Amino acid sequence: MTMAKDKKSPRPKAETPKGFRDYFGAEVTERAAMLSKIAGVYHRYGFEALESSAVETVEALGKFLPDVDRPNEGVFAWQESDDEGKGGWLALRYDLTAPLARVYAQHRNDLPTPYRRYAMGPVWRNEKPGPGRFRQFYQCDADTVGTASVAADAEICAMLSDCLEEVGIPRGDYLIRVNNRKVLNGVLEAMGVSDEGQAADVLRTIDKFDKVGEAGVRELLGKGRLDASGAYIDGVGLSEAQAEPVIAFLTSKAADAAGTLANLRAAVGGSAIGAEGVDELEQIAGLLDAQGYDAGRIELDPSVVRGLGYYTGPVFEAELTFEILDEKGRKRQFGSVAGGGRYDDLVKRFTGQSVPATGISIGVDRLLAALREKGRIGGTVQGPVVVTVMDRDRMADYMTMVSEIRNAGIRAEIYLGNPKNFGNQLKYADKRGSPAAVIEGGDEKERGVVQIKDLILGAQIAENATLEEWKERPSQFEVPRGEMVAKLKEILAGQG
Amino acid sequence: MTMAKDKKSPRPKAETPKGFRDYFGAEVTERAAMLSKIAGVYHRYGFEALESSAVETVEALGKFLPDVDRPNEGVFAWQESDDEGKGGWLALRYDLTAPLARVYAQHRNDLPTPYRRYAMGPVWRNEKPGPGRFRQFYQCDADTVGTASVAADAEICAMLSDCLEEVGIPRGDYLIRVNNRKVLNGVLEAMGVSDEGQAADVLRTIDKFDKVGEAGVRELLGKGRLDASGAYIDGVGLSEAQAEPVIAFLTSKAADAAGTLANLRAAVGGSAIGAEGVDELEQIAGLLDAQGYDAGRIELDPSVVRGLGYYTGPVFEAELTFEILDEKGRKRQFGSVAGGGRYDDLVKRFTGQSVPATGISIGVDRLLAALREKGRIGGTVQGPVVVTVMDRDRMADYMTMVSEIRNAGIRAEIYLGNPKNFGNQLKYADKRGSPAAVIEGGDEKERGVVQIKDLILGAQIAENATLEEWKERPSQFEVPRGEMVAKLKEILAGQG
Fold first, then answer.
1. Where are the beta strands (DSSP E) in B395-435?
2. Which of A47, A145, A345, A406 is the best substitution to test chain B (most B C-beta atoms within 10 A)?
3. What whole-number distance in Å separates Cα of residue B291 and Cα of residue A397?
4. Helix and strand totals (H; E) in chain A
5. Residue A420: Cβ within 10 Å count
6. How many H helices and E strands in chain B?
7. Substitution target from B93, B128, B395, B424 for chain A, most A beta carbons within 10 A
8. Residue B5's CB: how many other CB atoms inside 10 A?
9. Could you give the C-alpha distances from B52 to A250, B343, B349, in angstroms and in order?
10. CA–CA separation, A131 vs A142, rounded Å?
11. Which residues form the Aminoacyl-transfer RNA synthetases class-II family profile domain (chains A, B) (predicted)?
12. What is the dihedral of CA A187, A188, A189, A195, to 10 degrees?
């Protein structure tokens, strides 16, 4: 090896950059199949496909910090070089919503109003990668731009429910929970919290509701709380009376929507924005109920706090309710696979005009993992039938055979490695997950027959069978050449 | 408007970066459908999907100029920032072959040998954009890595032929032409050209064969040639005798493969590499013929020179032979939609070991354009049925209707704009390409009926019909509410 000496062109490392990965075979096709089913539902709801460019100007993405000469961390960005030297900054999109806002602002005169669109594709984040956390991943969004009607929000929830069932999450295994930022705003009003900083503190606190519970939130809204680790967390400094509406809000879920709505009305007190939020939730519940989406599929749940800081109206979250074992072997609910809500100011950045919008983003990898958990995907993938090469000079014969098999609709390939060692050919077939191998040596050729090995049965016999059974259940068959395809079909049907 | 005063955050321009574009609706779904058909063929041939990361290290891409501290022009690249400051350079992939080489080198112990893989997705080029030339576009590749067998080359050609027919290019409208770089190497040997620079000059010259013809190539190989523009192009400086084998090579195509092969054998004279190349072409032709791919689909054609500079063995090019009108209204053949060949040194960069590989790349946009030319795609796309909103308080009724229609498998949506002006609702339906609109006002609700407007028929009548015909062929129907879905099905079937 002269590697060390070869100074001119040291060998590059064959590695993906840190935080990136490759996807092979079924990983690609299963994702594509799932996305295709979701696209079918989106399409049936009147949503139109949009594929925006992966590259945007940093200005359009809105991630440019005005006082810094570089785009901020979260994005992959670079400076264009043009004829005069340095040009503007470009960046890879970090989600599908920011590009939608740009597209809508750019093409709004040609698009229908409202504009229902769906988008699927990779997005990139310039973040520290971690286990299972990649810097390129798929998103799958649907949004309605240009209408303030809560019917659009209800439609998104119904569509999300249909999507989950379409890809194979059975009814009862998921729940779409709906909350409303306006109700929280009403609660803040009822509390007398008008300072933006204090409102943000309250938001951060209720975000911890899942973890610390009602008592913990009370402490954090008041004087503070001793952490499990022993650290003291400062509180927001509200009085107990002031904290009451937030607690009422978070714990307002009742046995049915009517009960929940009554509790929420009480929580927002006299706040107009709060009442508007409760009205919206009531309308959404009514619209969904009329279409048959009962509380077992979509329900009002004011304890959904994720996204409340970002969205401006209704907020949705889809949770899978079946249990899995976590990395420590403890049972827990599978959890969230999609989220969304109403956001009304994204297009305004470009046009100055506020454009109402609402939408959903499905976590593609999370949903795929869920389908794997449920055994819907990820089973043994059947490989192609392998036509072995016994006689190097008769490649034309073997290619004709493989062509015949394929023309019958059966996935098949010819062995293209070195054919000298027949054992290697069978090892290859094994690695490919082949259901059957076809063999035609000189002897078979002369007698007008082929041998077909049932590789699945063969493997089962090799593992489990007694000698008697082995003899009784042959896994290799000799058939006339003209019956090759028919016999293969029979074997594959038997394996199915 | 306070735009000018708002210095803190000037409005960003809603524009794609130069050279990038967005794809809408049918542009996205037609491409996806075409790629899905091609993936089906690739899969049937035993090829496995691979989706490598869009981002690679610049070293792995092999576009790093060792003496320059920046990656070279053709790629979009940026420098990683890590904890210690500047890190390595990353870049967007510029094709799907360079990533394949990296993936194969990285995962070769886990992959079958040979490894058949296909890949589809966007690639990026940092080039000056032009009309119809974008800096992000799709490629769709299939490659076999790890076998030197010409059976792999023949298989790629057969598969390409199947792909073209599968997506809708009829037999007779395409031709896959096969040549071999080794034959050209033999020709260069026969000419006595061993200097690499001179060989490159010869390659550049034969690349002009299409444009300047046999006489032009003779001049350019010799003393030079007066250009159409009046400029004098220096020649390679070969003698007439030396030029003879190249001319024989370029014009060796005969009425059948046997004739072509005989001409090629004469052209390469006593060259061993040349004879090897001719043998390979003979084997490829034989293997394809045995499977029924006749010369009307795949033929040997030594005048294919595109790619001869890059590939190391067999070279393939798929041309569409039907005529179209170019931008100046002149008839010309549609031309190339795919190309490929054998390249044996890509993996060596990483591992030091030479790994034989062969493959094809389909020009996705070109093939889509061809299907559009042939009327296979791009017709009027039918939009969703639109359920109009006559009474804002009865949204639940309308959403129930739209839900019923969708559950019958019909694409449908509710109008979500401001319902005040009914004319706007019909304008919206028109913009959406809706086949029908459903109307249920208070009167209809009371009588238990709905109105259904056949919008396609309505448009035809409005354009062409006399008043008599108008009366005879109603385009609006009143049906009982319970028959809404059935009537819609009837109307859509009639439009089909």
1. 412-414
2. A406
3. 9
4. 18, 19
5. 9
6. 18, 19
7. B395
8. 7
9. 44, 20, 18
10. 28
11. 44-384
12. 180
For residue B145, list its beta bridge partners.
B115, B357
Kindly give the residue spans of alpha helices, DSSP state H, lying in A45-96. 58-61
- Distance to chain A for B194, nearest Cα, Å: 25
Q: Which whole-number Å values give the CA distances from A248 to A214, A217, A260, B69, in the listed order?
A: 10, 12, 11, 61
- The H or E element spanning position A90 is strand A85-92
For the segment B252-265, what is each residue's pLDDT rounded down to a tens digit?
A: 999 999 999 999 99
Q: What are phi and psi of B78, to 5 degrees?
A: -150, 160
Reading phi first (left if > 0) and then psi (alpha if -120 to 50, else beta), residue A96 is in: alpha
First-to-last alpha carbon distance for chain A, in angstroms, is 50
Angstrom distance (rounded) from CA A110 to CA A104: 9
For the record, the structure tokens of A323 come out as 């249990």
- Name the residue in chain B with its Cα closest to that of A3: B352
CB B364 within 8 A of CB A51: no
Quick one: what percent of chain B has pLDDT higher than 90?
72
Q: Do domains B17-148+344-381 and B170-337 have the same CATH topology?
A: yes
User: Tens of pLDDT along B270-302?
Assistant: 999 999 999 999 999 999 999 999 999 999 999
Pairing of strands B174-180, B298-300: parallel
Tens of pLDDT along chain A (496 residues)?
333 444 556 789 999 999 999 999 999 999 999 999 999 999 999 999 999 999 999 999 886 555 555 666 789 999 987 666 678 899 999 999 999 999 999 999 999 999 999 999 999 999 888 887 899 999 999 999 999 999 999 999 999 999 999 999 999 999 999 999 999 999 999 988 888 888 889 988 988 888 888 999 999 999 999 888 888 988 999 998 889 999 999 999 999 999 999 999 999 999 999 999 999 999 999 999 999 999 999 999 998 888 888 899 999 999 999 998 888 888 988 999 999 999 988 899 999 999 999 999 999 999 999 999 988 888 777 899 999 999 999 999 999 999 999 999 999 999 999 999 999 999 999 999 999 999 999 999 999 999 999 998 888 877 776 666 666 667 899 999 999 999 999 999 988 6
Measure the CA–CA gap between A37 and A32, rounded to whole angstroms.
Answer: 9
- List chain A domain ranges: 26-201+234-373, 385-495
In this complex, the residue of A88, A383, A416 whose CB is nearest that of residue B147 is A416
Q: Is the ipTM of this complex over 0.85?
A: yes
Classify B496 as helix, strand or coil: coil
CATH number among 2.170.150.70, 3.10.129.10, 3.30.565.10, 3.40.50.800, domain A385-495: 3.40.50.800
DSSP B424-457: HHHHHHHHTT-SEEEE--HHHHHHTEEEEEEHHH
What is the fold, at CATH topology level, of the domain defined by B17-148+344-381?
BirA Bifunctional Protein; domain 2 (3.30.930)
Binding residues of B for L-histidine: 95-97, 125, 139, 143, 306, 310-311
Q: Is the CA virtual torsion A12, A14, A17, A18 positive or negative? A: negative
CATH homologous superfamily of domain B170-337? Answer: Bira Bifunctional Protein; Domain 2 (3.30.930.10)
Q: Is-contact B117 B129, C-beta < 8 A?
A: no
B14, B112, B428: residue with CB nearest A102: B14
Domain range A26-201+234-373, CATH architecture: 2-Layer Sandwich (3.30)
Q: From CA B122, how far away is CA B20, in angstroms rounded?
A: 12
- Determine the pLDDT at residue B130: 83
